[in-house]
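Lecture notes, unit on protein representations.

Consider one protein chain, 303 amino acids long.
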Amino acid sequence: MANTSGVLFKYCPIEEAKALLEGRSLRWRASHLIDNPFEMTISTPLRFNQEQLLNSAIKTATNFIFTKEAPKGGSPLMAAIRRWRDEERFGSPEEAEGVLRDLMMQMIEQRKEALDKTMAEWKLLARRVRVCDFTAKGDNFYAWSQLAEEHRGVILRFQSDGSEMFGKAEPIHYSDLRPEITPLKDQLAAILNGDKVEPKLQFLDKYYIKPTALKFQQGIRCLFQQNDKETPIDDAPANWFIDREWGEDDLTGVQFGFATPLAEKQSIWDQVKQNFTGVKLFETKLLPGKFELEVERITEKPA
């Protein structure tokens, strides 16, 4: 879901909205503190172990030996496989697997160092990354229902374009494929073909992937990384969050739900008018006879 306007919609319960307006800050969390079991976190493991990697490498190499066409690739292993094919070295896959196991065990052991490094790099990044989530639109029924007290809450509108706080706000990519630290197929390519694999170059992309079933959320996510001074190495993971103050021009609007109580509208109206300059106020309306929302700007205190 593209967010061409640059507007970020933060759906909130009433009391949370008041607290955010009073503190002029947003909470940014490490991913393990987000209430979502599908998040990639510092505890996320590889989806394969050494034995699985070994067996997959043996099976793939064996298939190369007996497949109809000779495999391509310039690695020493691919060259050896082409030679074995020409020599008809092996009479059956079982014979080839027996010979390949010893060879592959050595290659897997060499690969273990690279995998250990990848896991260390992932854990370091996951310790530093802080996340703040938003929605792409202000008329999202799911967000109003689940995040803003069944339409009784409030939206805080932020402008991400040109903001030092939000950086590059990215839309969530909804997918049927779960992200992983490094896929088995990439490690096989490194072992069999000698491909250069650098998982850390895609680490940040994994924070923007959620299940296709949640695409109605229309999520927008912002990230930033704390340094080691801001997140001490011995700091408890429960404390991996920070409340960051927004800039004077970051907050652009406040939007009431169609069921926001009048007294709360009036209270927040006063809070905005007394403490913020140039922040616009909006009201959400439920269209008669339809499950459809309409948003309009209001210039007078609700009465």
